[in-house]
Amino acid sequence: MEQEQQTQNYIKITAEPLDLLAINRLVQRDTAGAIVNFIGTTRDSFEGKQVESLEYEAYVPMAEKEMLKLCQHARSQWDLQGIAIFHRIELVPVGEASVIISVSSAHRADALQACTNLIDRLKETVPIWKKERYSDGTCSWKQNCPGCTKHKQQQ
């Protein structure tokens, strides 16, 4: 396998449902002893309110550029092989994946640490915005930052 393919990054922002098995195939390498996945899904409630769906918006060119920077940073910290970061935009119903991050490495520790770092940094730096839609007809934009609880209510 060529070195370029061995360390390839796969970045995608799409309105289509995410396919975990297809994404795993992208990062699978014969030299990889571990593939670690993070799958962020739409849950059915938040702070006691019934959630019907999430809606994501992104500034796609900048988001893709930031996602690539995340991959480069992760590669500088850990010995990784394949990295895939796929994120949905538009409407994501309850139970469906909004984001999948898959990382392969020769050993599990690198893949586990990198995957955790990638989702944390994605939420901090990538220009993707989330709106929760509730069963009572209201919605709320959420900030993508750790520990943030502030949000703007919309009717």
Reconstruct the topology from this structure.
Layout: H1 3-6, E1 9-14, H2 20-27, E2 34-41, E3 45-46, E4 49-58, H3 60-77, E5 83-88, E6 90-93, E7 97-105, H4 108-125, E8 128-134, E9 139-142, E10 151-154
Helix pairs in contact: 3-4
What's the number of structural domains? 1
What is the molecular shape?
Answer: elongated
Tell me the CATH topology.
Aldehyde Oxidoreductase, domain 3
SSE topology string: HEHEEEHEEEHEEE
- Calculate the mean pLDDT score and round it: 90
Helical percent range?
25-40%
For the record, what CATH class applies? Answer: Alpha Beta
CATH architecture: Alpha-Beta Complex
Helix-strand makeup class: alpha+beta
Radius of gyration, taken over Cα atoms and rounded to an integer in Å: 16 Å
Family: Belongs to the MoaE family. MOCS2B subfamily.
Protein name: Molybdopterin synthase catalytic subunit
Pathway: Cofactor biosynthesis; molybdopterin biosynthesis
GO biological process, one term: Mo-molybdopterin cofactor biosynthetic process
Protein architecture, described:
The chain is an alpha+beta fold and 155 residues long. The chain has a single domain, classed as Aldehyde Oxidoreductase, domain 3 (Alpha-Beta Complex). It has helices at residues 3-6, 20-27, 60-77, 108-125, and strands at residues 9-14, 34-41, 45-46, 49-58, 83-88, 90-93, 97-105, 128-134, 139-142, 151-154. The strands form 2 sheets. Strands 3, 4, 6, 8, 9 and 10 form a 6-stranded antiparallel β-sheet that branches. A 4-stranded mixed β-sheet has the order 1-5-7-2, with helices on both faces. Helix 3 packs antiparallel against helix 4. Substrate binds at residues 107-108, 123, 130-132. Belongs to the MoaE family. MOCS2B subfamily. Its EC number is 2.8.1.12.
